[in-house]
Amino acid sequence: MLKNKAFSRQTRQGRIIKEVREHYLRDDIYCGAPYCKNGCKVSSLCLSDSHSTTILVLDTNVVLNQIDLLENQAIDNVVVLSVVLSEVKNKNIAVYNRLRALCSNSLRKFFVFSNENHKDTYVKAMAGESPNDRNDRAIRVAAKWYQDHLGSAVSVLLITNDRENKKKAIEEGISAETVECYVKSLGQPELLDLIVQPPSEDVNMDDVEDLRPSKRKVIYNEHKPMSEITSGLLRGLLHQGKLRVNRFNPFEAYVGSESIGDEIIIYGRANMNRAFDGDVVAVELLPPEQWHEEKSLALADEDDEEEDVHLAPNTAADAPRVLNQGQTAPEEMKPSRPTGCVVGIIKRNWHSYCGSLEPMPMPAGDGGRAHALFVSKDRRIPKIRIQTRQLGNLLDKRIIVAVDSWDRLSRYPTGHYVRTIGEIGDRDTETEVVLIENDIDARPFSAQVLACLPPLPWSVSSQDLTNPIRQDLRHLRVCSVDPPGCRDIDDALHCMPLSNGNFEVGVHIADVTNFVHPGTPLDDEASQRGTSVYLVERRIDMLPKPLTEDICSLRSDVERLAFSVIWEMTPDAEIISTRYTKSVIKSCAALSYVEAQARMDDSRLVDLITSDLRNLNGLAKIMRQRRIDRGALTLASAEVKFQIDTETHDPLDIGMYQIREANQMVEEFMLAANVAVAEKILKHFPVCSLLRRHPSPTKEMLEPLLRTAEAVGLSLDVTSSKALADSLDLAKGEDPYFNKLIRILATRCMTQAVYFCSGDLSPPEYLHYGLASPLYTHFTSPIRRYADVIVHRLLAASLGSYQLPGVFQDRPKLTSISDNLNYRHRNAQMASRASVELHTLIFFRKRPTDTEARIVKIRSNGFIVFVPKYGIEGPVYLTSKGDNGGEWVVDEKQQKIRKLDGSVSYGVLGTVRIHMEVVEPQPNRPKLQLTLV
């Protein structure tokens, strides 16, 4: 049956045109019930085969607000109507994706019914009826159809919290219940903890004591409506940006504002006005006399409460200046940085948080609803008030809590319990917390994904060897050099002397795209994961292990498929020619960095592989120096390496990661291959190439580095990467670690390198500042990075051996893929750092230690130090809690903090001796405390 729907719309030129859309209705859309007697077919994705189970029909708001409950195994046999699916997609894409995951899981009985295309369930909007009312009516009609279609032997229940919708359903002969009533009927009280309460209920939740709403005080300013925010932004009265909370001080936040070209400091929870880290906010500037100098802001103690929350002022201009513990406001302090307060939330960044409940006595009675405060492991997140019927079971557990609302009369946001992770302090539990906090998908690969893999054992076939697009390079002396114990080897090298005195040098990369095909479940999964994640004690793969450790891994003495970049180079590392080819290789050796370095250093060794390594190293040194001469930065990072017990997985030792010449040798050829491939793909695909850029740091970003350098008598030129690189080379101190420390500080001033689609930017913006390269991409690690998979497809297409998938013609889709890759890459880095912090705590828990540290940042009540031996950074306090800090004075220019009487002084980059010990100032929140010896 064909329905025509006519509507009018206005064109860009202002003309009104009439459009007619055709809507097809069918009578052969199946209900999904295996026991249906009306001839409906059944697929693997269907409802329960039990007559006795109630079929649930959900309205849109139930899905949007109760997704945590729906994901619980107790909620089953659910009909998801297409009208609901469409509404959810339009209102919240994250919830939509979670709902689709439920509907596509054959183990969960969630069935999608296309009510909008069934002739008996489609409803037309009535005159004067709102879209919301029309959709509610469509849901009721579908519920009634199910009830009539399946007969009285089956119970169909509409779940809605909308009073009017429920009332109409009952009047129309449909069984309907609220979420809470239905969950209570299941006889599982713990499920009630998962229910999101309406925001109005927050009025009664501000304190454990029963406070009457009339007695509650206004704590925060009311958020401005979007209409007023939009007007304020257009008039320049308000400024928009993403709120970032200081990881050392949760009462200090920054909003990067393009409208004023600087970061706005937001100081105190009152001025943050219920904004969370990551929220996009509207900010109003405070009067200049209330602006803060960034360096005067104090460090916050781990056990600080929200002591700066006070009654909200009426306007930003009236907001009092709230100081943290240990902070004074000297009169001579000159206002420097814009300071403001949040007046509205443009986009929320709420998600689920990991942590534990604040210890409290068990309330009288058994099984009743108790109020509790949830404390996130992330100190930037405020405490969250929840209600639970499982208090006794949760007090010693790491749990997940989601935020529901934050009333301006409530000191804390309101949320609900989602699930339990495990025992507090257990390493596996704490590792899972790291993964959840950083949105890392560590689930086993699905059967659909694994079905995409070739059968094992796999070997190179005769078809591979005779394929005209693939060159047989098994005769070459290829070897790989990787970290010790590496099993996912995705790159190898060869270096062959030529008769003309030049060298043939090849970079050979695992040919992952030979096995990962576009549009398959394997490709979709890799695209979503984006990257492999490396934790201290394990690796979370982007691709299944049979691919990463066997089929694709370039192990020694086995034939493998590769994608090769091969140069002819002079002895001075000048490139004569470059060619690209799919290949078959057979690695002669899989060496670790230590083994390769030992071979190169041992003059007694004269075998062919060692000679190749020495030739490669000689060329790499020339290439590296040439890169540095062009302006490439040689930066440094505080990378930590653990020695792990193979049985207990506990850390046995910890230290800074050592970089050898062998590391730099491999890095140099990988960089060269990435640059060569970037040039090749951009030449052929100027608007759809995936490249990687490193934006130049702004003057404001480099200011902390310049201030620190000036304080220790250094003059750094930051006019270009070349000028900065030369300045860093000249930055010599009295001890050998001084230069590395300066480079670490320089690294922290840099912008993040990001992936982008070449069509989204102009060529001058392609620059990779750190490498001083006009073009760069990622080609050399397709086993662990999806960006490289995309680049392999582009390179193959540029050689004429591959047809580019349709997605490369869809610019918005490519941009979306780039954004996801950047998000996943950043999260993987954060997870790796959090894993290091977790194992650092485990290591030092029974090992209190005295060691040397270097001061990297001065604050008014102490300083932040870096511990070179262990790669650890943290605060050292000079004032105790409650101390007004009056005995200490900060010299901003000299970057020193000294006692008033001049008896003691500490300066930036100076050496201090500290004591390191794990303490627990707040229950369930251990930290590594650093104190002066």
Automatic annotation (TrEMBL):
Any idea where the RNB domain is? 470-801
User: What is one GO biological process annotated to this record?
Assistant: rRNA processing
Pfam families, alphabetically?
A: OB_Dis3, PIN_4, RNB, Rrp44_CSD1, Rrp44_S1
- What's a GO cellular component annotated to this UniProt protein? exosome (RNase complex)
Keyword Lipid metabolism (UniProt): no
* Chief localization: nucleus
| PIN domain span | 54-167
The protein's UniProt keywords, in alphabetical order, are:
Exonuclease, Exosome, Hydrolase, Magnesium, Nuclease, Nucleus, RNA-binding, rRNA processing
The keyword Lipoprotein appears for this protein: no
Superkingdom, taxonomy of origin = Eukaryota
Q: Which cofactor(s) are needed, names only?
A: Mg(2+)
What the entry lists under PROSITE patterns is as follows: RIBONUCLEASE_II (PS01175)
Q: List, alphabetically, the PANTHER family matched.
A: EXOSOME COMPLEX EXONUCLEASE RRP44, RIBONUCLEASE
- How is this protein named in the record? Exosome complex exonuclease RRP44 homolog A
Which organism is this protein's natural source? Solanum stoloniferum
